[in-house]
Amino acid sequence: MQEMHVWLYDEELAADKLFTPQDSDAAEDETWVVDRFGNEDRTVYLQTLGTDGTNMLTKASLLYMQEMHEWLLSQSLIVDGEDVTYNVVCARYTKDDDCKSPVSVLSYWQHNRTLLEADPNPLSTINSVDWRDIEPSGPPLSYYVGSDAVRDASGALVSTRATRIIYNLKNEKEDISGVGNDDPQSRYFEILVAEKSADRRSADRQAHSAETYILTEGEEAEAGIEAGQDDIASLFIGYFLMLFYASFVLSRGRVKYSHSILGLVSVVSIGLSTFSAYGLCWYIGIKFNTVVQVLVLVLLGVGIDDTFVIMDSWWDCSEIPTMKERMIAAMKHAGPAITITSVTDLIAFLAGSGTAFPALRDFCYYATIGITFDFV
């Protein structure tokens, strides 16, 4: 079903386009800025954490941090037939400039292993050299050594349990099928390093009494997509539960007079009306989004409720002898109730379509058309 969204629906995944009114001043200003200056850099946080109370400011721990820095720079993958490395995805002021330098406590040694190994007392260097001589602008050193850093009475750093390196990556966004508007090279590089760093944590804990966690925009976005795929499975489970419930209610506890097969027919009919509604929305250009996924169960609930109303009227007309007359009487009784309920839902969702939030507005559009197909 997720694959169906990719090729059938024009799915909107960008958070700013889902929840920010596109005619607002903020959206227009952002478009103006991006058109002239490009998107802001992406940020990757490589965070090293000491285990078993390890001090991450010792020379051994700093060398582990340096190792992880070199490891990240060495990673590569193929994206759209192109070999993507850190040198490809790193942010630059202009295309002819070098990569923007990462920033961390290792900046004292220019992220250079030789310089770090040659320093007999790295902690002394950290405390004796003014951080602003290393990084004249930007956050203070405490931003890179964590809030649990310990200092002595003079204010000199003694230890910390965590450190981090901050990298800037390019952010040249384009439409990616099934993903949304993103930079494919940076996104997949981020996911790669985040996953691979997780794979080596156990070995790092044993070898260095430390481990690395990498936080990236790509990994967060991928987690959101995976959550949406999990929701798809939940929708199928919900459909089967509703099918079981409808069949149970319509069976009336008696095999001879059971209408449980109508539960299956009703669920299938509602499913077809839902797909028809989705198809019409796609045809007229209303974008699909993850919020709309929930509508599948909403329409199922409304449709099954109509089924119960019709069958209740049918059972109340059991004394009418002929099938035709009984059906007419049942629909005379159930029809107005179903019509009033459907029209009420229709008006409610039409009113909701006036919201300024694009995701909710499109949801209401889908719901309005879905309720109409459900009723018909």
Would you mind describing this structure in some detail?
This protein is mainly alpha-helical and 376 residues long. It is built from 16 helices and 9 strands. It has helices at 2-8, 15-19, 25-37, 59-74, 86-89, 113-118, 122-128, 131-134, 142-145, 184-199, 201-208, 217-251, 260-283, 295-316, 323-352, 358-375; strands spanning 42-50, 76-79, 82-85, 150-151, 157-159, 162-169, 174-176, 180-182, 210-215. Helix 10 crosses helix 12, helix 13 crosses helix 14 (295-316) and helix 15 (323-352) packs antiparallel against helix 16. It is elongated. 26% of the residues are buried.
Radius of gyration over C-alpha positions, nearest whole angstrom: 30 Å
How many angstroms separate the termini?
25 Å
Largest sheet: 3 strands, antiparallel
Class derived from helix and strand content: mainly alpha
In terms of DSSP E residues, the strand content is 5-15%
Query: How many H/I helices?
Result: 16
Shape: elongated
Name the helicity range. 55-70%
Main sheet: strand order: 6-1-9
Query: How many E-type strands?
Result: 9
Order of helices and strands: HHHEHEEHHHHHEEEEEHHEHHHHH
* Overall pLDDT metric: 86
Low-confidence blocks of residues? 1-8
